[in-house]
Amino acid sequence: MQMPIKILATEVVSKIAAGEVIERPASVVKELIENSLDAGATQIAVEAQGGGVELIKVSDNGTGIPASELELAFHRYATSKIGNLDDLEKISSLGFRGEALPSIAAVAEVEISTQTSSDPIGSYMYLKKGEVVRKESRARSQGTTVTVRRLFRYFPARLKFLKSANTENSHIAHLVSQYALAFPEVKFSLVLDKRQSLRTTGNGDLREVVSEIYGSELAQRMLKVEQRDGLAKVSGLTSPPSLARSNRNYLSFFINRRWVHSPLLTRATEEAYRGLLMDGQHPITVINVSLPAQELDVNIHPAKAQIKFCHEQTVFSSVQKAIEEGLARTPIASSKAVPFSVSSGQWQSPRMIMDNEPAFVVAQLPTLELPVLRVLGQLANTYIIAEGPDGLYLIDQHAAHERILYDRILAQWSHKEVEVQGLLQPITIEFSPREEETLKAGKEFLAEFGFAIEPFGNRSYLIRAIPALVARANIIEIISALLDSLASKESPNPWEEKIAQSLACHGAIRAGQQLSNEEMRELIKQLEQTKQPRTCPHGRPTMIHLNSHQLEKEFGRIS
Amino acid sequence: MKLSCLQENLNRGLSIVGRAVATRSTLPITQNILLSAEQSRLKLSATNLEMAITCWVGAKVKQKGDITVPARLLSDFVNSLPNDLIEVNLPANSRILELKSGHFQAHIHGIDAADFPPIPQINDGITTTIEAASLREGIAQVAFAAATEESRPVLTGINTEFDGEQLNLAAADGFRLAVHKTTLSSPVKEKTTVIIPARTLNELNRLIGEQEEPVEITVNEKKSQVLFRLKDAELVSQLIQGSFPNYSQVIPQSYTTRAVVDINEFLRVTKMSSIFARDASGIVRLVITPGSELAPGKITVSAQAEEVGDNVGEVDALTDGEEAKIAFNVRYLSDVLSVLSQAQVALELTTPSSPGTIRPIGVDNYVHVVMPMFVQW
To answer: A87-117: b or e for each residue (b if 16 or more CB lie within 10 Å)?
Structure first.
């Protein structure tokens, strides 16, 4: 039985459209918060129950909706935010499509109560299945309250796909947090199932919002990011490498304070942290990028979570540079193993740091460079024990050598001067189909790094030359490890990066190898000359520093 | 067991077998030395399961018997005794070895000899003898070129080919090849090729030391073990199974440039450059400049370290052919130059990316091939 083609009923159309905008309860919250922000609210209170399915209530102190326009606001494509096509080119408000309220009304019961400064009395409206059921005048202070009940009740397909109330709550909490981060000057309050879950002061201090969301200790250690030159102005906070997290949920990006999911900005951030974090670790970052409205297109995704830039590369490098500069002022690695002592005293409450201060105070300690170290000996044939002007250093010989080789390999590669050792007799390797594909894709890179690999028929290959730095290691093992790492999608590093990492790892001295004093001194000397002596290319620390103060404390010489 | 022997002899014997004592082992008894009192001599044995050394020490045996004791303990104690007669006594049904010498005595707790891994006996197979000096030279000129990295086990060994009256030793580590040919004192009955661990042969060279008596070599029928019989010691070793790469095709058959130089001078400039080559994967660049009517030919050896410094050295050379350039890992060059006893050496080249050949002048039993490094000139 085939159905005849026909135009869908209005009710069906609006539900289909609503489905694009309102995906889950958090989408309702998002649309309502954006409306509040566009209305210039300085206080926004969000309340949700039962994961937002039972109740969502968003109240603000914004401009409100005039009584005469209230009904119109629930018509599709009705908006006060843009007027004509030109406005679409330079959108400065968060919303503009005129879809939010009708979409919500299409999938839930909505109550709205609003009051403007000009209307003598506030108005109230109750909608069910998108139809106005009741409309009356009702007093309220200036602002708007939207209450959404029984979300998706007439939309069982969507309801079925919702996760547990807890999961939906957490989506709402994450969302409200993001807006709180984007608008530190707005006072946000979130009550989930009658429990206060978030409250920001709205005093405009981003660090304070971060403190509210991620905790005060973390907030104190976050580094300031600021880049006021050029097309894209970048500002925000980012974590020192020692504060990494194991997923990307802690990356918050805002474009003109619009919360976005941007693979571009994620990459730019990770690029800035390259070599500072271990594999699988991600930073905590809150970044806002200000761009002229005509530089971007937000009208891609109904929920506006994606964004297109006119000058992607500029945005990318501005963000990367800004974060790198923020990080350059950080003390690396040592802070992780040894808790801060005197240098970051408790008196430095984040409140005392003025917004326009050049750098976070702790971050000014110039500890990126190594002091002169005197080798004392080797521990477990794995760690070099050294003395510096301010205490004891334990250096992981493998990680340290890895860092040295990594820098050297990348330097040789960038000067096109990779040292290559020819093989007297080629080594034959047979690759798996997957390895072979990776090899084909990465052939040029591998050649630039000194591998001469020739096909020998039937997935067999001949290795004729290898990088000199790994000449003494197991060649077959290196090549297969290399191909594995190139094929892995987990780490987004560029290939040259992965190749250098892999070569450095295999070429470096191993743990358990006995070193003479001479060799240890040489190793430390070379480590001192690297750019990031305190971390290996995988982001593990190369050294642990026990400062004199700490030693004195441990021995009870001081309290 | 009851016997007496001279401290000097026992000490020497212990230091010989001590080379085969396992340093790290899951089998603790391999860290012991087996002492067996035989007819008028004391037999000392040690094994790390890959290689075993047995050594005989002259002794006055009053009562036969055997025991194993920790190698370090026994050697260190004996070493600290004055050169005097040592009385060694193991009471019946006891595992405590008594050592007595003048005013000094010690008791060492041992483990039953029956628990000691059996030292392989090789009585049949292919047997031959060779002059100690020839074997010593062969090992010295070849063993260093073997691989130390274990990914291709055959390359950690020395390909040993017994062919009639010929003994051909070859070692390669993927970047260089050393081949040495010498004559056996007695021909083998059939052509036999085995791969002997380079470690074993290095130990053998230490054992041969200054010995002048010929060395007897026996490969068992299964070609799994080899026995070297010296004047008063024996070394048995496992052989590496597998087939050694066919190396003859690697040796260049011709050259376009040849330079003959004094080995010691060449070694000196090489070592000089190694100081600067250290920071750059050991790269040294060699340029062979042909001589003219006015000036002799030369080899220029140079090294440079980025942002550190550089150096250049020259050696006069008798050249043949056109100008040539090549870069080597300095270690490969100094390794081979250090083991040659001749006065002069020839360096033969074709292109900067083809292997270079080094042959000592005056003999034709040795050839060394080194693969270059590819650098920007």
So the answer is: eeeebebbbbbbbbbbbbbbbbbbbbbbbbe
pLDDT for residue A363:
34
CB-CB neighbours of A228 under 10 Å: 9
Best to test chain A binding among B244, B308, B373, B375 (most A CBs inside 10 Å): B373
Residues of A in Cβ contact (< 8 Å) with B375: 417, 419-420
Tokens of A50: 């039962």
pLDDT at residue A359, as a whole number = 34
Report pLDDT digits (tens) over A482-523: 888 887 765 566 788 888 888 888 888 888 888 888 888 888
As a 3-state breakdown, chain A gives helix, strand, coil percent values, each rounded to 5, of: 40, 25, 40
Average pLDDT score over residue span A301-318: 78
CB A148 within 8 A of CB A30: no
| DSSP H stretches of helix in B1-130 | 7-18, 71-80
8 Å CB contact between B108 and B1: no
- The whole-angstrom separation of Cα B119 and Cα B52 is 7
Cβ partners under 8 Å of residue A185, min gap 6: A42, A202, A203, A204
Choose the closest CB to A420 out of B177, B282, B374. B374
Residue A274, helix vs strand vs coil: coil
Q: Which two tokens stand for residue A373?
A: 């170290």
- Closest alpha carbon within chain A to B356: A424
Question: Helix A165-182 and helix A206-214: axis angle, to 10°?
Answer: 160
Chain A residues in contact with B280 (beta carbon < 8 A): 419
Q: Give mean pLDDT, residues A131-150.
A: 87
Q: A421 contacts in B (CB within 8 Å)? A: 175, 281, 329, 371, 373-374
Give the position of tokens 């040659």: B340
Q: Which residues face B321 on adjacent strands?
A: B257
Interface with chain A: mutation pick from B24, B281, B350, B367, highest number of A CBs within 10 Å: B281
From the list A193, A198, A197, A319, the residue with the least C-alpha distance to A251 is A319
- Shortest Cα distance, chain B CAs vs residue A514, angstroms: 15
A39, A238, A436, B68, B201 from B18: Cα distances, Å: 89, 61, 49, 13, 16
| B151:A417 CB<8 A | no
Judging contacts by C-beta atoms under 8 Å, the chain A residues touching residue B306 are 411
Q: Which of residues 24-83 of B touch A (CB under 8 A)?
A: none
Residues B4 and B60 sit within 8 Å (Cβ to Cβ): yes
Give the pLDDT confidence of B34-71 residue by residue, as tens digits: 999 998 899 999 999 889 999 999 999 999 999 999 99
Residue A492: per-residue pLDDT: 60
- CA B178 remoteness from chain centre: 13
CB pair distance less than 8 Å for B373 and A468: yes
Q: Which backbone phi and psi does A329 adopt, to 5 degrees?
A: -95, 10
pLDDT band per the 50, 70, 90 thresholds, residue B13: very high
Closest-CA residue to A502 (of A528, A551, A536): A536
Helix, strand, coil in percent for chain B, rounding step 5: 25, 45, 35
Task: State the pLDDT confidence band at A358, using cuts at 50, 70 and 90.
Answer: very low
Within an 8 Å CB–CB cutoff, is residue B377 touching chain A?
no
| ipTM value | 0.70
Listing from the earlier edge strand, what are the strands of the sheet with B60-63?
A: B60-63, B2-6, B85-89, B96-101, B104-109
Q: pTM for the full model? A: 0.60
Cα–Cα distance measured from residue A163 to residue A479, given in angstroms and rounded to the nearest whole number: 45
CB B52 within 8 A of CB B46: yes
pLDDT at A361: 33
Q: Is B122 exposed, middle or buried (0-12, 13-18, 19+ CB in 10 A)?
A: middle
